[in-house]
Design goal:
By secondary structure, this protein is mostly helical. It has helices at residues 2-16, 34-64, 71-97, 107-140, 145-148, 151-177, 194-200, 206-237, 243-271, 278-302, 305-325, and strands at 24-27, 104-106, 186-187. It has one domain (25-177, 184-316): Rhopdopsin 7-helix transmembrane proteins (Up-down Bundle), CATH 1.20.1070.10. Helix 1 runs parallel beside helix 6 (151-177) and helix 6 packs antiparallel against helix 8.
Length: 326
């Protein structure tokens, strides 16, 4: 519903003109060198394929396994789904552009891409925060865990993550889409993001830029603060656990902390400060739009015995069924 509204809004803005003469944008991308673009095409096609296959494997494994029914895996399943959606907003267009000379995107398509990137990116932040709360409850309040983290509570936390991501993205998109664009139309990025578009607007964007930074910064810093406090409390409470319990808790939390650092670090660099060098920003953006979503399945499976065991059983059942057919 949220995406549909934004698409309608973008189409209406294009129809009405929005005081703009620009009907399409040209994405400069990562490089204008043909030889480098061919290397990038192969590299990022592999990255995107690994991302989709790896996250789909986690989703199928969690859904099909009777043992992975705890809230942690419930959130992990949604995280993998969001990772696929998040990368799919930017990666296919970027990969296709490596093969063509005319790297254009319509005004409506640009606004839709802007909305999708912020929608799924913000939703991922909230889901990572929900996962941290789940680990805090499991380790620090184990006697109340089943009562606090019911399926209904987990479902509401996921719905809240989607709604929060939608509200954030609508604000960012409306502020940007209503600006007049009179030319030039070259976006110094591989996808339509707020900062590159603000530089192209033929109006004073200082106030809009402050609101954009405040909006993104408040969400990013508040989520990161909650995550840091949660894990500080968890690490302190682990002193009273047995060595075996500490190792198991640290293994689970270590995977999540790794993902949080890989995701929040680049996001913080990009969105909570005024834009300076867009060439550096688009390199940093690769981490939270493509590389981190690709690494998430590897991080969670390599450090989690339960997920690896469930994957082996799933693969064993599939191989067995194939042999039975033969």
């Amino acid at each position: 519903m949220c995406t549909g509204c934004v698409l309608c809004m973008a189409a209406q803005l294009t129809k009405d003109g929005n005081a703009s003469v620009v009907k399409e944008f040209i994405l400069i991308g990562l490089s204008e060198n043909r030889g480098v673009q061919e290397v990038y095409f192969v590299t990022f096609l592999c990255f995107y394929t690994i991302n989709v296959v790896g996250n789909l494997l986690i989703i199928v494994t969690v859904i099909s396994s009777q043992h992975l029914n705890s809230p942690m895996y419930f959130f992990l399943c949604y995280l993998s789904f969001v990772d696929i959606c998040y990368s799919s907003v930017t990666a296919p267009k970027m990969i296709a552009d490596f093969l063509v000379e005319n790297k254009t995107i319509s005004f409506a398509g640009c606004i839709a891409q802007l909305f999708g990137a912020h929608f799924f990116g913000c939703t991922e932040m909230f889901i990572l925060t929900a996962m941290a709360y789940d680990r805090y409850t499991a380790i620090c309040r184990p006697l109340h865990y089943t009562a606090l983290m019911t399926r209904r509570v987990c479902g509401r936390m996921v719905v809240g993550s989607w709604v929060g991501g939608c509200v954030h993205s609508v604000v960012q998109t409306l502020l940007t889409a209503r600006l007049p664009f009179c030319g030039p139309n070259k976006v110094d990025h591989y996808f339509c993001d707020v900062h590159p578009l603000l530089r192209l607007a033929c109006a004073d964007t200082y106030a809009v830029g402050v609101i954009v930074i405040a909006n993104s910064g408040m969400i990013t810093l508040s989520s990161f603060f909650i995550l840091v406090v949660s894990y500080v409390v968890i690490l302190v409470s682990l002193r009273s656990h047995t060595s075996k319990g500490r190792r198991k808790a640290l293994s689970t939390c270590g995977s999540h902390i790794t993902v949080v650092v890989l995701f929040f670090g680049p996001c913080t660099f990009t969105y909570i400060r005024p834009p300076s060098d867009l060439s550096r920003e688009k390199i940093v953006a690769l981490f939270y739009t493509i590389i981190t979503p690709m690494l998430n399945p590897l991080i969670y499976t390599l450090r989690n015995k339960e997920v690896k065991s469930a994957m082996r059983k799933l693969w064993g059942r599939r191989v067995g069924s194939e042999k039975g057919k033969v």
